[in-house]
Amino acid sequence: MGDVWSLFIAWELTSICSFLLIGLNDDIAAARAAALRALLTTGAGGLAMMGGFVIIAVAAGTTSLTSLTETIAHGGPNIDLAVGLILVGAATKSAQVPFHFWLPGAMQAPTPVSAFLHSATMVKAGVVVVARIAPAASHLDWWTPTLVFLGGATMLWGGGRALRQVDAKLILAFGTVSQLGLLMVLFGIGDPATTAAGVAMLVAHSLFKAALFMVVGLVDHATGTRDIRRLDGLARTLRPLAVIAALAGASMAGVPPLLGFVAKESALAALDTLDGWGTVALVVVTAGSALTVAYTLRFWFGVFGTADSTEAARAAADAPADTGPATAHHGVSALAWVPAAVLAALGIVGGLVAGWVQDGIDVAATALDSAAHVHLSLWAGLHLPVVLSAAIVLGGTALWWTGGRSGAAERSWPLTAEGSYQATFDGLVTSAKNITAKVQNGSLPWYLVVTFSITALAVLIPAATNGELGTLEVRLADGWAQAAVALIAAALGVGIAFARRRFAAVLLLGGVGYCLALIYLFLGAPDLALTQVMVETISTVMFLLVLRHLPSGYRPASEWLARPVKIAVATTAGAAMT
């Protein structure tokens, strides 16, 4: 996509489509709230991104995406601000901390929608934009540390939250947040090797995450629940799903010989060649990957494993009192699980014949960075990435065994991003109601005062600032006849203000209109004068017809505003328009 505005339009369309998909079950209040949360969060980020694009486009003199990246690389005034705004948009779209809260809420959508949103499309858009600008923006002093911190915090936070969920779908949702943090680190560094590894990781994630969401949907359909505190022994009754989940989960955890392992190895190898922030990123990715192994085990054993008596007792403390173990009410047809099996099988093929897969991944990587070339292999020798991979699996397993096996639900936090969003949203709604109650109070005089005051100020303030008021030539009239008509019109206007009967006010108002027609005639505009006479006649007749249904007199005048203030507003507005 060569034009930045084409990219932006497609970007916003993904937000709108995701809003419609998340809120598909529009009869459920939680689904509607989740859809609105996603739209507001990503929409606000989209506005920030648009601001960044505008700044860079003005500096570059073109909207070509290639020219914009060149402008970022060369630097200049406000480029840091523009790149920062683009990064905000990418962070909201790809659910980076602290904008991650909308993604778990999107689980209100049907499972096929979740599989679609969380494995591809919307959530990957942010990291792809970062990947496009990272090679050019990496020279900025703040870029690399910011991206390492942003992605690393997201990876660790998402992994930690996933390890405490009891809803199988939420485990995968927070796992997606964690994986997006990993991708943000890899693409954000801007090194050709990490960019290529990021593309490989992106492909692997799309395969295993879509398969796992499909499995969760089928489990929910067969048992009626996704609560791992109630699921027990499904590996026996839903064996095909257990096998598919094991393969896809192994790829997510980075276990050989699957594509997830190969991609993770390439990421570790790429980070191992870097110094400084690359070393920090390597440590963070290693720790985050151990969390990935832990929540993968929690997911599989929670859904398909058999709980022993100790774990069952620990789970019972948090499980609802009126619920018991859930079993499969019926089997799952092959037609339902075959698509997930195909995706899981592709993960195996991608790992075993990584050399074949790397050609296709290489094409995508070079599109992001011409120097990026991926090298995927199942075994590249005994080096640090292999040692780290083994440590990740062992450490993640130990973490799951010591804390991740518990069926206890996550405890509430005093301050969360979700709570901050909701408090902000509720505050804005309350403020809007209060302001609207004050401004839109149903009083026509109030509306007129506000309208005329703002109109007068909009005319007079620029004129006074530019010095036009001092050079203004005032010509009262071109002759005695014109002056006489103007005085009559003014007298009629004053009479309207003091009229006590509606009928008299309408006649006086019509007289003002006819005086205006005479002034047009004196100024040499007979056609305009004729139009004014016709309009005034029709308006007067319509007023008189309406008056038949109204009381003859006015209600007592409201004293909400002092008469001198009303006169001042009317005089100022009239002078401004004149």
Order of helices and strands: HHHHHHHHHHHHHHHHHHHHHHHH
Oligomer: single chain
User: Which word captures the global form?
Assistant: elongated
Give unreliable regions as ranges. Answer: none
* Residue share in β-strands: under 5%
Discrete helix count: 24
User: Termini distance?
Assistant: 53 Å
Tell me how many strands there are.
0
Overall pLDDT score: 84
Helix content: over 70%
- Summarize the biggest pleated sheet: none
**Helix vs. strand class:** mainly alpha
Radius of gyration: 34 Å
Characterise the protein shown here.
- The chain is mainly α and 578 residues long.
- Among the domains are: 147-405, no CATH class; 438-577, Four Helix Bundle (Hemerythrin (Met), subunit A), CATH 1.20.120.
- Helices cover 74% and strands 0% of the residues.
- Helix 20 crosses helix 24.
List the defining traits of the structure above.
single chain, 578 residues, mainly alpha, Four Helix Bundle (Hemerythrin (Met), subunit A)
What's the topology here?
Elements: H1 4-22, H2 29-60, H3 65-74, H4 79-93, H5 102-105, H6 111-119, H7 122-137, H8 143-162, H9 168-189, H10 192-223, H11 234-237, H12 239-253, H13 259-272, H14 277-304, H15 309-316, H16 334-352, H17 354-368, H18 384-404, H19 417-439, H20 444-465, H21 480-498, H22 502-522, H23 526-547, H24 563-577
